[in-house]
Amino acid sequence: MHARREVFEAESADPEGVREGLRRIGALYDIEDEIRERALTAEAKRLHRLTHSKPHVEAFFDWVDRKLEATPFINALHYARERRAGLEVFLTDPDVALDTNHLERALRVIPMGRKNWNFCWTELGAKHVGIVQSLIVTSRLHDIDVYTYLVDVLQRVAEHPASRVAELTPRLWKRHFAANPLRSALHARVA
What we know:
Layout: H1 2-8, H2 15-37, H3 42-68, H4 74-82, H5 84-87, H6 89-92, H7 101-107, H8 109-112, H9 114-117, H10 123-141, H11 146-156, H12 170-176, H13 185-190
């Protein structure tokens, strides 16, 4: 989405080039609409993207390389080219969306509470607030009850092997531990 925005904002420099860039990006969104309409998931989604989106992505970056040689909106194209590896991740991972708009909306609460973060007192405290906020948002994106996740992980982390710490991230935690989460002592009294 940021790469698209960079192209869009260069309209005054090269309206025709921007229209072409937006058309090429729009073709990828059309393919994503088709994936949603067909309710493709996992491997079927990945294969559909490789078959249909990948040629558009390759053509887009070829076009970017050609335009870089003689265009007034060079900054937008450099932005896209420098991030090519990240922009292509959606082709091989069916769980990755084409853009990050849903993440930006979910994370909007963090800047909205900016004045509250002044009371973190230290840079380390602010960093920890960011980590916790990120875990909360990621849990919500994966339809995980945040309280259940945090109670489980905070109990599990001391004995969990450091080499497998990635299993405690919300997405992998859901796969490995969500069916039988650790509970707090309070849970037993309430239940």
